[in-house]
Specification:
This protein is α/β, with parallel strands linked by helices. The chain contains 17 helices and 23 strands. The strands form four sheets. An eight-stranded mixed sheet has the order 1-16-15-14-13-12-9-8. Acetamide binds next to loops.
Length: 683
């Protein structure tokens, strides 16, 4: 299934290029999506929409409102009675003052009324009524007025496609957010993106009512936020020897002093980030900073090696949790982070700590003894608890990746689930709130269409393979729309066909407005072989595994290779069976009785980034009794690494050999790695 189908879908627009509309109607976009709620589900089957809304306008809004009814007629005005900022000001005034009603009328007396009302339940909820004479917006808080403005922006765009001036279709909309946290994450460490690019993404996000931009600001590949107290974090840690993450990671992984020849990278000054925070806030978007600890910190620990266990630059990825100085250092960093980012939630990473140096480090060992910690996992938990308390003492809450679930989290701590949706159950059971961004569905750095047609990508790798701003937009849009749709409208009313139609409209709109969105119109979609069963003579035949398949990729287990079902574009789709080890694929198929075998074919996949390679040899042997085999085919290939994934079919074709048993072997080449195949087709 293409990833849009997993996710639903989405896209982006340049705010500056937007038609002038009477209300704030900002556009924005990127890659992760989160849903914060005590009860979080991400089932992707779909249901239906709202009985009352049947006209074009109703079908065009994205995300879809909770309830919308459209009537004949439009509200139109020769001169917009308010411009974006004015509406924004109204919302802000309503938020800060006990104002009941604020009106502005055009020369004909037609009015937009922003009315504070508790009838709209929830901070982002709103009620909107458009008639030929008026637009009435009711909300309980500024956020609600902003969201109503964003809806009006989309309505105006719809209604004014042919008209010179904006007009709004008559309608009644009652709307509210299903999930409090509707976000996307940008990894600005692996590749650095300029501040204007971030603003453009915020514009797109706002159009789709996304409200959290999570910036992954630090990682081995570059520290991206100016920290005044520790200038080497950016003087050295923000600059590396190669612009391409892939070349750098596979090369020397070196850092270079700022301004020196060959320094690639960059960072945001605190002034730039403050301006960005304001820009986002005006559009209803909170920027959530992420500072990684204790792991993913090679750049920080090369700039300040005294904070790793061994004090050696270039050697460690993890901070030393046994060193009191580390806590001072990270607290000082977080103080500056909190000074720049007003976000209630501060992300401290917490994922993928190797912890290897902790076992041999006297300071770590002493801390474990003193605190009665029984292993290095508890040592990490102790560090996380320290920073939970530190952030709470400053009125903030900690967010961490799901590894932090380990133990005893504070109730205010939020867990960002990335490995597996099941991780959310543990966190919810412990009383914590969960933000869902399971890699399988929400990591938008993976392929979004037939991999051989797409730029290099890989699941769970963020911007490692996304070197430019244009490429980032291509990966983000329109997929982010899926996140926006589910995040706002919820999971209960999903209708993929309806969503796709709206996403297609938005995709085209975004592309027209200078956003480098993937061309959804030209989507290839699913691998054709996946959607039709294949008939052949070994269908349902018993398969004996002379070498086992790899446990993580069983597909349908012992029936996988003769069930008539072929795989899609990705090896993780449950149809591809994986083989790891020297013996590769080695199976014997029992046809049940002697048959003429004139063709034996198997398709293999190559995805070098995932260490999946074509086989170096493919052989077919036949036997009457399953004991004495005669080889009837052998092909040998040199396995070569490729940037793009590919598929290769190996096939014996001959005049035919009479046999009951067919033994098929495929051996790995010099790179080792995995072999993947989906069906052995015998004719
Ligand atoms: C992650 O992808 N390591 C959070
Ligand atoms: Zn240590």
């Amino acid at each position: 299934m293409p990833q849009i189908a997993f996710l639903y879908l989405c896209a982006n627009i340049s705010y500056k290029e937007m038609p002038v509309l009477a209300f704030p109607h900002y556009f924005s976009g990127n890659a992760h999506v989160y849903f914060m709620n005590k009860i979080v589900t991400l089932s992707l089957s779909m249901l239906c929409c709202f009985g009352t809304s049947c006209c074009l306008e109703a079908q065009s809004l994205l995300p879809k409102p909770q309830s919308a009814a459209f009537q004949k007629g439009t509200f139109s005005t020769a001169k917009p009675f308010a411009v974006n900022n004015e509406a924004g000001d109204m919302a802000r005034n309503l938020y800060t003052a006990p104002l009941i009603e604020k009106k502005s009328a055009d020369s004909k007396g037609r009015a937009a009324v922003f009315r504070k009302s508790d009838a709209a339940k929830g901070r982002e909820a709103y009620r909107l009524r458009v008639t030929a004479d008026s637009i009435i917006v009711e909300a309980a808080a500024a956020e609600g007025f902003l969201r109503a403005g964003q809806t009006l922006g989309q309505l105006a765009a719809t209604a004014s496609k042919t008209a010179a001036l904006p007009s709004y279709p008559c309608c009644t909309i009652t709307d509210a957010a299903a999930f409090e946290w509707r976000g996307m994450m940008l990894d600005v460490s692996r590749h650095f993106f300029p501040i204007d690019f971030l603003k453009k993404q915020i514009d797109v996000m706002a159009r789709y009512k996304l409200n959290r931009l999570h910036l992954h600001l630090t990682d081995a590949a570059g520290w991206r936020m100016e920290i005044k107290r520790y200038p080497r974090l950016t003087r050295l840690g923000a600059w590396r020897t190669d612009a391409s993450w892939k070349k750098w990671w596979n090369g020397d992984r070196g850092y270079v002093e700022e301004g020196q020849p060959g320094a690639n990278g960059g960072y945001y000054t605190q002034d730039q980030l403050r301006e960005l925070v304001d820009y986002a806030a005006e559009r209803g978007v909170t920027i959530v900073p992420e500072i990684e600890m204790p792991a993913h910190s090679e750049e920080a620990l090369t700039a300040y090696p005294e904070y790793s266990c061994t004090h050696e630059p270039y050697k460690q990825a993890d901070f030393c949790p046994g060193n009191a100085g580390v806590y001072d250092f990270l607290e000082n960093v977080l103080l500056e982070v909190m000074d720049v980012f007003p976000s209630k939630d501060i992300h401290v990473g917490g994922d993928e700590a190797g912890k290897a140096s902790w076992g041999n480090c006297p300071l770590c060992q002493r801390k474990m003894r003193e605190e009665g910690l029984k292993d290095v996992n508890q040592l990490q938990a102790s560090l996380i608890r320290h920073f939970e308390q530190f952030l709470e003492s400053h009125g903030r809450h900690l967010i961490g990746w799901d590894e932090i679930v380990e133990d005893n989290l504070q109730k205010n701590t939020n867990v960002m689930v990335w490995r597996n949706v099941d991780e959310s159950k543990k966190a919810i059971a412990a009383g914590n709130r969960v933000i869902l961004s399971p890699g399988k569905f929400c990591y938008l750095d993976s392929y979004q269409d037939a991999p051989p047609t797409q730029p290099e990508a890989q699941g769970n790798l963020w911007t490692e393979y996304v070197p430019t701003a244009e490429h980032a937009e291509y990966m983000l849009y329109p997929r982010v729309l899926a996140i926006a749709e589910i995040g706002w409208n919820g999971t209960k009313k999903k209708d993929f066909a309806d969503f796709r139609r709206r996403a297609l409209n938005e995709s085209e709109l975004l592309r027209g407005k200078g956003v480098n969105a993937f061309d959804l119109k030209g989507e290839i979609g699913e691998r054709p072989e996946r959607s039709r069963a294949v008939k052949h003579n070994a269908l349902q035949a018993k398969v004996a595994y002379n070498a086992p398949y790899g446990k993580p990729y069983p597909a349908a287990g012992e029936t996988a290779l003769t069930d008539g079902l072929q795989g899609g574009w990705t090896y993780g789709d449950g149809r591809w069976q994986g083989f790891i080890g020297k013996e590769g694929l080695d199976v014997t198929i029992d046809l049940g009785k002697a048959r003429t075998v004139s063709s034996v074919a198997a398709t293999f996949m190559q995805v070098c980034g995932a260490e999946i390679y074509f086989p170096a040899s493919f052989s077919v042997a036949v036997s009457a009794d399953g004991k004495a085999f005669k080889e009837i085919y052998l092909s040998e290939n040199t396995v070569e690494k490729t940037d793009k994934p590919g598929f290769r079919t190996e096939q014996f074709k001959g005049r035919g050999a009479k046999a009951r048993f067919v033994r098929v072997k495929a051996l790995p080449g010099a790179f080792g790695g995995w072999l993947f195949t989906d069906e052995i087709i015998v004719k």
